[in-house]
């Protein structure tokens, strides 16, 4: 049944996502607006934005308007052997907006799976990431990387810390010439193959196999192959491998991913495994999750709603209030969106204008 009063695009998305996550057993997570600033400053590199709004509480503690939800979920996570805790959230966060570059209250939605995370859980979360993008727009792409593959091939070069960071930066930029300059006397064929690799897993993984013959690299590539094969079996065919997704290795490990939709130049979804962050926060568990940046969806516009209201009902100061109220109710009973005004509001988009007569 079609809604009598159509929702805005971001409202429709939130409603659909909530239903999707509940179907897979994810429970809602709610939190307050504030956290102690220390939680964020200790994990600043994990945050999307380094801008944090702070204030001093009445007891002298330095507090922050929350710029992130994942850290609060980890802080409050209950770890039970052999189980996973499955949570989803729709929360306002306070950070620099990707669209305005100013501080903004932003609705962020996402989910986290924490505990004894195995291969099935990885596949489920990535599948839900792809399905989330499809609910926003059918023209989407989910790019996947594996930090284990990247780390193992970079470690094999035997570089010092600075050179290693330089190579990782070049991989993120797909800068093959930069790698050649940093490693003039080292076999970098595997790294160059990583940089050149982008596309369907069925094509990319065989091309990388000669460079991932044993140890950690092979184990990571095998895991990536199992995951992508499971996703393909679900009919999720808008998934590509792209090893330029290089997140902070102090926090992330294993599979990481980013999602894009047509019409928005930045990623609207970001996620991955963050077992190392769990360890840093004293939790003996694994974790995987993702977040969707709802502020970016504002760029999609509202093509299905060219009008703010269906009917603009204009009335004079001396109008009969009871009769005016009846007229509004009659129009709303027809499924119309109505605003009663004495004058036409600036920039109001309306389908029809009616002059009320008492």
> What is the N-to-C succession of helices and strands?
HEEHEEHEEHEHHHHEHHEEEHEEHEE
Secondary-structure class: alpha/beta
Global mean pLDDT: 88
Shape: elongated
Distance between the termini: 35 Å
Count of helical regions? 12
CATH topology of the largest domain: BirA Bifunctional Protein, domain 2
Low-pLDDT parts are 1-5
CATH level-four homologous superfamily name of the largest domain = Bira Bifunctional Protein, Domain 2
Biggest sheet, strands in spatial order?
A: 1-5-6-12-11-10-7-9-8
Strand content: 15-25%
Please estimate the helix content: 25-40%
Rounded to the nearest angstrom, the radius of gyration is 25 Å
CATH class of the largest domain: Alpha Beta
Q: State the major sheet.
A: 9 strands, mixed
Describe the structure.
With 358 residues, the protein is an alpha/beta fold. It has 3 domains: 1-138 and 262-305, 2-Layer Sandwich (BirA Bifunctional Protein, domain 2), CATH 3.30.930.10; 140-243, no CATH class; 309-355. Helix content is 35%, strand content 24%. It has 12 helices and 15 strands. The chain has helices spanning 9-23, 37-41, 70-75, 119-136, 147-155, 161-173, 176-182, 189-196, 201-208, 215-233, 275-280, 321-333, and strands at residues 27-28, 34-36, 54-56, 62-65, 84-96, 103-115, 140-146, 198-199, 239-242, 255-261, 269-273, 286-293, 309-314, 338-341, 350-355. The strands form 3 sheets. Strands 1-5-6-12-11-10-7-9-8 form a 9-stranded mixed beta sheet. Strands 2-4-3 form a 3-stranded antiparallel beta sheet. A 3-stranded parallel beta sheet has the order 14-13-15, covered by helices on one side. It is elongated and about 90 Å long.
């Amino acid at each position: 049944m079609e809604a009598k009063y159509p929702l805005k695009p971001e409202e429709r998305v939130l409603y659909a996502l909530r239903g999707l996550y509940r179907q897979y057993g994810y429970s809602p997570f709610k939190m307050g607006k504030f956290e102690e600033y220390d939680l964020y400053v200790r994990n600043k590199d994990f945050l999307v934005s380094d801008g944090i709004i702070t204030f001093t509480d009445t007891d002298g503690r330095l507090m922050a308007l929350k710029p992130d939800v994942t850290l609060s979920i980890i802080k409050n996570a209950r770890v039970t052997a052999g189980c996973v805790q499955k949570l989803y959230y729709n929360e306002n966060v306070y950070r620099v907006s990707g669209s305005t570059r100013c501080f903004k209250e932003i609705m962020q939605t996402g989910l986290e799976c924490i505990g004894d995370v195995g291969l099935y859980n990885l596949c489920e979360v990535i599948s839900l990431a792809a399905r989330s993008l499809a609910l926003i727009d059918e023209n989407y792409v989910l790019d996947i990387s594996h930090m284990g593959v990247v780390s193992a091939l970079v470690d094999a070069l035997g570089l010092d810390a600075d050179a290693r960071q330089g190579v990782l930066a070049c991989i993120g930029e797909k800068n093959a010439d930069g790698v050649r300059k940093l490693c003039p006397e080292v076999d970098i064929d595997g790294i160059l193959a990583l940089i050149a690799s982008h596309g369907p897993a069925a094509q990319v993984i065989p091309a990388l196999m000669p460079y991932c013959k044993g140890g950690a690299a092979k184990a990571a590539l095998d895991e990536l192959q199992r995951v992508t094969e499971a996703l393909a079996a679900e009919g999720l065919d808008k998934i590509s491998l792209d090893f330029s997704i290089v997140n902070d290795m102090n926090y992330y490990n294993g599979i990481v991913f980013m999602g894009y939709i047509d019409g928005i130049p930045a990623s609207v979804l970001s996620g991955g495994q963050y077992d190392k962050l769990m360890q840093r926060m004293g939790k003996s568990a694994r974790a995987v999750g993702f977040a969707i940046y709802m502020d970016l969806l504002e760029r999609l516009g509202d093509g299905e709603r060219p009008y703010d209201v269906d009917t603009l009902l204009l009335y004079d100061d001396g109008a009969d209030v009871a009769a005016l109220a009846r007229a509004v109710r009659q129009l709303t009973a027809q499924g119309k969106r109505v605003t009663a005004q004495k004058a036409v509001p600036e920039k109001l988009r309306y389908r029809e204008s009616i002059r009320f007569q008492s």
